[in-house]
């Protein structure tokens, strides 16, 4: 190194050789520092950029060195998506209340009480809509006035399959069909009991349901072979999530009744109305229809509970993984995407007067079972 960076030392006195050698070594170190520091500084700036490119491949325009795009973005107003005038961006969903208080009378033992689990309300809100409660035992003219304020309907889970509740669900279903036949795209989501009610209503057979052992059970969904999911609730599920639905327990089942694929297919009124999308198996390995969609109407029926993964915490078998939450979100998005196609444009004041925000939920999650929150409605008016 000294031959490159130090002067010729052959003419120097021997007594000064050692000091000159040590000074020369220091000079060498300084010179290398002078050369290497800028290189290190340069690499320290470039390496994170290179790592970002190779590890994620997701870079902002400025990170890609696309200065023209960056300059364009900074010098002009942002471009907002033009909304589709055919869609309604203030959708409202009507949720049919269920008899009781949702807690076997522990919260309210009024025989006129009915409830909606708050998880269904949150589910609708997660998709970007609001809720109007359809109180099943209020005067019929009031209930059907409310039905004119919504852009879709949701039937919840529960136990009631007879009496006034069944009659009201039947009338609402017929109204949904009528609206669609008259040109309004008016969706219906039917969950668990809701699916069972539709099975009974459409088949015109109140004894059509079969027993299954699927209470408090996490399960997978088995897609029907060669099924086309375009236009169904599963259309926008990422491929990886669709695969996980078949191999992992990402949905919650909580029912003792249902219908087998064979019985649905062999019941003409049902097979003409519904297409089976998925099946599942109960604790006895018996297969039942877990998701079905109407051939000609925006009606989707779930034997499972898409609302529970993200919004209920009591039952032990509810899946709460990130994938399970994504299932809830996609299911909610589909319902509200369908509701936005509705032609109904209800008066804003009437909507505000009837929204579920006019009621307060009751917290009941400390029991460690059942629902975490419920909306309870007491209806003492006589029906007309």
UniProtKB/TrEMBL annotation:
Q: Which organism is it from?
A: Hibiscus sabdariffa (roselle)
Domain of life according to the entry: Eukaryota
Sequence similarity: Belongs to the peptidase C26 family.
As its record notes, the protein acts as a catalyst of: (6S)-5,6,7,8-tetrahydrofolyl-(gamma-L-Glu)(n) + (n-1) H2O = (6S)-5,6,7,8-tetrahydrofolate + (n-1) L-glutamate
Lineage per the UniProt record: Eukaryota, Viridiplantae, Streptophyta, Embryophyta, Tracheophyta
Fetch the Pfam families from UniProt: Peptidase_C26
In short, the EC number is 3.4.19.9
Q: What is its main location?
A: secreted
Report the SUPFAM superfamilies cross-referenced here.
Class I glutamine amidotransferase-like
Q: Any idea what this protein is called?
A: folate gamma-glutamyl hydrolase
Under which main EC class is this enzyme filed? hydrolase
